[in-house]
Amino acid sequence: MSAVLSPSELKKVLQPETSLEASFLEDAEFCRGLQWGVPRYGHPEGTIMAHILEVNANIDRLPVSAEVRRKLRIISWVHDTFKHLEDRGTPRDYDKHHSVYARKFLEDYVDDELLLNVVETHDDAYYAWRLGHLYHRLGEADERIEAVRKAVGDYWQLFYLFFKCDTSTGDKNPAPLLWFENTMEDITVTHFLPEEG
Fold first, then answer.
1. What percent of the chain has pLDDT over 70?
2. What are the C-alpha distances in Å from 62 to residues 160, 162, 186?
3. Distance from C-alpha of 119 to C-alpha of 8, rounded to nearest angstrom
4. pLDDT band, residue 2 (cuts 50/70/90)
5. Largest separation between any pair of C-alpha atoms in the chain
């Protein structure tokens, strides 16, 4: 098992850009969560911290405003960081899902209800795709997407952009993202800029 990094070492790796991002590293549970994880399907990078670095690199390749970029980075920093606390029992207790823990954590830092809703629902497009394409429960898939659309309201495009940045990491299946971009008529499909270098 690799050595546990201190908050100052995590800061060097993650390079927070704002006082808000830096303040997350003052929370011991958050720092534990960053270092959780081993290479697995969808996440060959292993730790949550490594995944965040990949998501942030994708955010940097989007042609978006500074404000949208700032919000996407907030979501990125917290979205999976509490997977180490998640209940993985059967049946699944979604009140103990990592996204619920992430939302509760972020509530102490921001009061943007729609941003909090994006954090809490960040995996729901994938779950909707899975319901429809793997289990052929099309009605339930449509209901799940409509619930997300309602929850995130004016942040629907932001939700999509984060889904794109999150799904375009590791060895994740691109099919859910392609489905979303080809099916949702009320988003602006956005392409990554070429990588520098």
1. 98
2. 12, 10, 19
3. 26
4. low
5. 48
Q: Is the pLDDT higher at 14 or at 40?
A: 14
Q: Which tokens hold the place of 72?
A: 């996407």
What average pLDDT does the structure give for the chain? 95
- Residue 187 phi, psi (nearest 5): -120, 160
Contact (CB, 8 A) for 162 and 128? no
Determine the pLDDT at residue 171: 93
b/e map of 138-155 (b: 16 or more CB within 10 Å)? eeebeebbeebeebbeeb
Which pTM was predicted?
0.95
* C-beta of residue 125 within 8 angstroms of C-beta of residue 174: no
Percentage of residues in the chain with pLDDT exceeding 90? Answer: 88
Residue for token digits 């099916």? 183
Structural domain spans, the chain: 7-183
Q: Which of 114, 113, 81, 115 is nearest to 97 (CA)?
A: 81
